Amino acid sequence: MRALRLIEFGHPLAAAMVPNPDPKPGEVLVRVRACGICHSDAHYRSGVSAIVLPRTPGHEVAGVVERCPGNELAVGTNVALHYLVACGRCDRCLGPGEQFCREVQMLGKDRDGGYAEYVVVPVANAVPVPDGVPLEHAAVMMCSTATAYHALRLAALSSGDVVAVIGFGGLGVSALQLARTLGAGRVAALDVVPQKLDRAAALGAVAIDAGAGDVAAEIRRFAGAHGIDVALDFSGQPETSGLVLAELAPQGRLVLVALSRTPPPFDPYRDLVGKEARIVGCSDHLLGELPELLELARVGRIDLTAAVSATVPLATDPVNATLDGLERGSANLRTVILP
Fold first, then answer.
1. Which of 130, 162, 191, 256 has the highest Cβ tally under 10 A?
2. Residue 72 burial by CB count (10 A; 0-12/13-18/19+): exposed, middle or buried?
């Protein structure tokens, strides 16, 4: 089968012909119909995370069941793939969640992913996609939307909450829709790319340019006397998240999602202790959250049309160009490979 492979860190992905994966009992072979290109893939390509090479990236995957030895899923079933392959037995799987599993493997990082024509996963990781939900939307939901949903659940979003979304990419556009669906009041979107800010405004958010003018004043103006109840950091820019943190309401929550090793600057008493505010970490999401999201899409409460801003074929040049754009700061929200 055709695949795009990471052969050497810091270099473009390379096209390769590799053997078709062979599903064992308890597994399913899926023909990939859509695979999102996530910013994490650009990080992996650059060598930010330890990955055994060569590796086929891609963890936002949806497709069609091609073969299932145990017949748990019928051939032809549309499925989206949970990217965390966990043991399901350890204290962490049975406790806080499978993302903390002692043996967890991530699709596209620890095992070959969806930048290919086929992929094999455990049957439990293949979530049926309801009729009417496009597979490119279902693919994006497996990371962007699911992680945003998990972050909002960790933040314990309440009806009427004032929300700030820091970074309006694939996760940000999902977070905006989900926040509204879950009952948020005013929502701001912070970014530095004009096209993304325009999209955020068109979707009903208060757009704040985090790279121009007096950003702190703009955030204060949005927060108002009440303050910001929930802030979601999808950008990993500590200066911006620090400004938002300073405007949290009493018992407000800043959820850190982006990959960054630099903490936001803050005054412990003013920003946290004095307001009983919290900084919360968010890692991935849960398998059990995925059917909930797919159902929200089926009934029209969320629509990922705005999130999928471009599609590309399974070819080196357009995929590497997309990853280059993510590293520079692209105007696209989410690009999806359609093999």
1. 191
2. middle
Q: Model confidence over 30-83: pLDDT tens digits?
A: 999 999 999 889 989 998 888 999 999 999 999 999 999 999 999 999 999 999
Number of alpha carbons in the 13 Å side-chain half-sphere of residue 322: 24
Can you tell me the distance from the alpha carbon of 3 to that of 17, in angstroms, rounded to the nearest whole number? Answer: 6
Query: Residue-wise over 25-38: b if at least 16 C-beta within 10 A, else e?
Result: eebbbbbbbbbbbb
Tokens of 183: 């009952």
Mean pLDDT, rounded, of the chain: 94
Q: How far is the first Cα of the chain from the last one, in angstroms, to the nearest whole number?
A: 11
Where does residue 33 fall: left (phi above 0), alpha (psi -120 to 50 degrees), or beta otherwise?
alpha
CA neighbours within 13 Å on the CB side: how many for 60? 30
